[in-house]
Amino acid sequence: MKDIIVAITGASSGIGEATARYLTERGAKVVLGARNADKLKAIVADIEAAGGEAAYVVADVAKRDDVAALVAAATDRFGKLDVFVANAGAMPIGALDDLALDEWDQMVDVNVKGVLWSIAAALPVFRRQKHGHFIAIASTAARKVVPNMAVYAGTKAAVVAICEGLRQEVAGEIRVTTLIPGYTATNFADHISDERLRDQIAAGGSMAMPAKSIAAAIEYAILQPGNVNVGEIVIRPTAQA
Q1: Is 152 one of the annotated active-site residues of the chain?
Q2: Sorting pLDDT into bands at 50, 70 and 90, what band is 189?
Q3: Residue from 56, 152, 183, 220 carrying the catalytic annotation
Q4: Which of 184, 188, 206, 228: CA 20 to 30 A from 14?
Q5: Full-prediction pTM beyond 0.90?
Q6: If you ran DSSP here, which 8-state letter would residue 208 be given?
């Protein structure tokens, strides 16, 4: 991972934070994007104190200019961008009968448009460089739809479809990987307004994987030879059916 430049969205907690810490420990240089400046600043300080190199940009992936600024910060500071990890996500799940229109908007804006704005920001850089690796975090909800997760599952299925289309279009020059994780130890349950569902999702924490497991899978995809593209990685806790 030495001197590989990685931009990561949703990097203030969960999978994004774990990936930033994991990759910098192995020599990568990272630029972190998220909405919480205080958390980003603290993570960057930790990475630098451990001898790593990192920077951050306050960025909301629902805003295309913010994502463009994240990519610009990476190329301005390091002169290139090798990997973009589109990790930011929203999961305020609930029954369709609840008609939680604002929450539906949020999931589409973050989970789908956020990935599109990430592609729009990173792809021109990758094309100019004639190399790059776009990695998106989906979910096993894209493969197994259950009650109360219809909209969330739909957005994650869209991520899988968009990234597969991108992979085919850029084949031969740019790599595209979709990570499809199951239960992972993050703070996603905090997004859920329905108390019963929040408790139900939180209960899954007893079998959840550490976020570091996803970071390791990301490293695996990055470190393949240049002529090898890992298109998808499905990773679940052993206990998850």
Answers
A1: yes
A2: low
A3: 152
A4: 228
A5: yes
A6: P
